[in-house]
Amino acid sequence: MAQKKLQRFADIKTFENVLEYPKDMQGNWKTFFKNSHPIILELACGRGEYTVGLAKLFPQQNFIGIDVKGNRMYIGAKKCLEEKLANAAFLRTQIEMLPDYFSAGEVDEIWITFPDPQLRTSKAKKRLTHPRFLRLYQQVLKQPGFINLKTDSPALFNFTKRVIELYNLQLIEESANIYAEDPKEELKIKTHYESLDIAQSKKIFYLKFSLPIVIKDKDMDDALQEELKVTENNN
After folding, report:
1. For the segment 20-30, what is each residue's pLDDT rounded down to a tens digit?
2. Which of 8, 135, 140, 191 is a Cys-bridge partner for 102, taking CB atoms 3.0 to 4.6 Å apart?
């Protein structure tokens, strides 16, 4: 297994659709893709199922899967090369470094699919829909920039809804069980993690929202954290 992982790390260094901690990419993605199509990010993309799936559905948009784990990213990147998906690429880096790779307004939309919900209150700031991250996304998103969350975690779903309410974000779409409805095509894409639900017992939640020009002061973050502590203690 270790040898296989090392081989994948070596292979992605040769993939033309994978960039590992690149320099001077801010404002240069149009040059990379050779077009001016909208740019959509999949954060913590893992194997990149959503990056691949969205690229197939929307050939007039460019998709970039972002993750730090090159071993997993290899799978999606290789598939894109095999299927000649020129509108999909992968960026190996930490999400916290987004502003190092994208200029203000360079990104049109963000997808967050099945992230670690970081269920402990003490780790709430690591949730990818925490205001700490939303301020980060705000630095690269166009206005209005859209964020999509797809998760099987009711805790993360409810937390994100609370953030939307507290910080006066605009809720655009909401579903507490997408497969109980007639979901749009992009919501039918399944990640490897989602497909592991052999009994098909999980509810899959979805939120789409946009960010205002300014997110409330960071003092609100402390109030949010205290609210989470109260809820945790009451449970």
Report:
1. 999 999 999 99
2. 140
